[in-house]
């Protein structure tokens, strides 16, 4: 073998150095890209985790106070004390059915101290809960112990997944617990909305119970699978608790095995026919007892790695060759220009890819904002119903009167009623238009609003009920132009709510009188006084709370809560007090926009 020449040795040395530098560059690029990519994925996953948990908390908290509110209804205690009275039980069944439709809960039912359901909103269904024993459920144990119960399970009667809230029913005087009221929330609706968020955020999620059983997931085949090995003892415990009824529980195949205490772990899971790698970030929801997992796919990070390493290698080689062959620049200029042209083309292609990714990210953010606005619109559904009911009732009343006038050939009065019906229809269109404009990001319809005209329009709506109840109306409005700045439709709705409540409060009174006064000093003060029984002192602080009502047969107590928010949005305030001569006085105080006395 011939000895190597110095030139050959130099070339070999330069080749070894070049390859070593290339290896180090690729290794560094690989490590930096994966390390930084995982940090970015973890940061994004933590943000998505907070958003998902916030959504889940909001979806459940919407129903959390309902059992407590329902427990204050004396009808429940009366039925528990007289379970053999079919009339009382049927009346309660109808009441629970109505509340179930209004609150959009899955089911609402009443159980006695032994855990037997005696009334339910699904009393007409084939899977009715009435007569079923639920004493084995933890929410029954919590409620009978005097606490608010929370529990997730699959219904043994309906075979539907649900989250249960329970609250004890006390004997009058608080001397003992007679039973419990249960509100069941359908989990499937929450799962669908959460899956939409996961699709928009390009991740998967699953929610597990304290036994590490997946019961909510964006991937169907992950649902009702155990994250940890399904031992015989664990299977026996699941069967004994009946949390999942008769549904079979399997094991979720994960590599490596699941570790509950580790964050940002990488797991390989099966999705359809493929096996994909995900980064797991999870957090415990203390109230619900759930563990929420965000599973971010690693595939996009890995798929971008070859191109990045190719770019790093190209840059390294370009720098190395420019140093080694700088003396031969002329001879290799054409080759280097070609290499540089190819490199620039690749960079341009990567830049276009990044720009496209940025555009996709902006579209995704817009979709998330729109999804959040639709959630807000869903939460306002109760107030929409509340604002439309009274004008609709007025339209019906005027329409019935019009029929009578036409039958008696009283054309003029019939025409007057039709004009009023048209005005009320226009008002309904205004109300619907407000919520429609909200979805279009409207700036609102605030304007200078005449208080006197607004009160007169509100009186027009409640006038049929005033006449029907025989209420004496005493209205004193100041002369001149007196205006506030705000939405006239919403302000009018506040007046209608308070006047309607006053008329209902005076139904049992011998003398029925409604007094309306408007005074002005540094602010406008609108006073609405009735001759009813007034407001009990114990109810003063709660009267403006959502779902609080003193009349169990009419609504859920949203009117005054909505009215308070409207007045506060106009920089005003609303309060209630009892008059010395009896009855309640509601005072609305608003800033003056324009006051011109005659």
UniProtKB/TrEMBL annotation:
Give the catalytic activity.
ATP + protein L-histidine = ADP + protein N-phospho-L-histidine
Q: Give any Pfam family that matches.
A: HATPase_c
Record-level Gene Ontology MF annotations: ATP binding
Q: What class of enzyme is it?
A: transferase
- What kind of membrane protein is this, topologically? Multi-pass membrane protein
InterPro entries (alphabetical):
dCache_1, HATPase_C_sf, HATPase_dom, His_kinase_dom, HisK_dim/P_dom, HisK_dim/P_sf, Sensor-like_sf, Sig_transdc_His_kin-like_C
Membrane-traversing stretches: 307-327
EC number(s) recorded for this UniProt protein: 2.7.13.3
Q: Does the keyword Transmembrane helix apply?
A: yes
Enumerate the spans annotated as Histidine kinase domain. Answer: 383-594
Q: Chief location of this protein?
A: membrane
Domain of life per record: Bacteria
Q: Which UniProt keywords apply?
A: ATP-binding, Cell membrane, Coiled coil, Kinase, Membrane, Nucleotide-binding, Phosphoprotein, Transferase, Transmembrane, Transmembrane helix, Two-component regulatory system
Would the keyword Nucleotide-binding turn up in this protein's UniProt record?
yes
Per the database entry, which stretches of residues form a coiled coil?
340-374
Compartments, as annotated in UniProt? Cell membrane
Q: What is this protein called?
A: histidine kinase
Q: Which organism is it from?
A: Shewanella vaxholmensis
């Amino acid at each position: 073998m011939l000895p190597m020449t110095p030139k050959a040795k130099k070339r070999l040395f330069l080749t070894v150095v070049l390859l070593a530098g290339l290896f180090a560059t690729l290794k560094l690029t690989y490590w930096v890209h994966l390390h930084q990519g995982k940090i970015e994925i973890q940061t994004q996953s933590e943000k998505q985790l907070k958003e998902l948990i916030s959504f889940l908390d909001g979806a459940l908290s919407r129903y959390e106070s309902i059992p407590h509110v329902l427990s204050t209804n004396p009808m429940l205690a009366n039925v528990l004390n007289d379970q053999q009275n079919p009339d009382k039980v049927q009346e309660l069944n109808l009441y629970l059915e109505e509340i179930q439709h209004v609150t959009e809960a899955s089911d609402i039912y009443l159980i006695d101290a032994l855990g037997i359901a005696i009334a339910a909103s699904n009393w007409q269904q084939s899977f009715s809960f009435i007569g079923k024993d639920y004493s084995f459920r933890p929410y029954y144990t919590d409620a009978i112990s005097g606490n608010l119960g929370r529990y997730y399970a699959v219904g043994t009667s309906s075979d539907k997944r649900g989250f249960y809230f329970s609250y004890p029913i006390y004997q009058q005087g608080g001397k003992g617990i007679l039973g419990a009221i249960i509100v069941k929330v359908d989990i499937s609706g929450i799962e669908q909305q959460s899956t939409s968020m996961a699709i928009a955020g390009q991740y998967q999620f699953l929610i597990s119970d304290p036994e590490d059983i997946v019961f909510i997931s964006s991937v169907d085949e992950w649902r009702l699978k155990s994250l940890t090995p399904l031992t015989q003892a664990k299977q026996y415990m699941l069967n004994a608790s009946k949390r999942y009824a008769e549904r079979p529980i399997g094991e979720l195949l994960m590599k490596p095995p699941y570790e509950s205490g580790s964050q940002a772990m990488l797991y390989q899971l099966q999705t359809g026919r493929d096996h994909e790698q995900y980064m797991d970030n999870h957090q415990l929801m203390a109230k619900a007892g759930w563990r929420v997992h965000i599973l971010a796919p690693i595939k996009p990070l890995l798929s971008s790695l070859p191109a990045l390493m190719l770019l790093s290698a190209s840059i390294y080689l370009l720098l190395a060759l420019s140093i080694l062959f700088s003396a031969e620049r002329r001879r290799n200029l054409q080759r280097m220009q070609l290499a540089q042209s190819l490199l620039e083309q690749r960079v341009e292609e990567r830049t276009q890819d990044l720009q496209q990714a940025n555009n996709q990210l902006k579209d995704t953010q817009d979709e998330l904002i729109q999804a959040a606005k639709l959630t807000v619109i869903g939460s306002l559904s109760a107030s929409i119903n509340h604002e439309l009911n009274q004008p609709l009732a007025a339209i019906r009343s005027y329409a019935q009167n019009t029929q009578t006038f036409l039958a008696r050939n009283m054309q003029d009065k019939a025409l007057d009623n039709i004009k009023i019906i048209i005005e009320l229809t226009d008002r309904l269109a205004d109300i619907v238009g407000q919520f429609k404009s909200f979805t279009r990001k409207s700036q609102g319809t605030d304007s200078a609003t005449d208080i006197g005209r607004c009160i007169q329009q509100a009186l027009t709506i409640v006038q049929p009920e005033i006449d029907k109840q025989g209420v004496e109306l005493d209205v004193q409005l100041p002369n001149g132009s007196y205006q506030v700045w705000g939405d006239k439709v919403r302000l009018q709705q506040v007046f209608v709510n308070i006047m309607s409540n006053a008329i209902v409060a005076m139904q049992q009174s011998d003398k029925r009188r409604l007094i309306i006064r408007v005074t002005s000093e540094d602010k406008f003060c609108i006073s609405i006084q009735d001759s009813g029984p007034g407001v009990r002192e114990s109810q003063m602080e709660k009267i403006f709370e959502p779902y609080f009502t003193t009349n169990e047969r009419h609504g859920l107590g949203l009117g005054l809560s909505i009215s308070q928010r409207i007045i506060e949005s106009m920089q005003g305030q609303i309060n209630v007090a009892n008059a010395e001569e009896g009855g309640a006085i509601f005072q609305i105080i608003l800033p003056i926009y324009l006051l011109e006395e005659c």
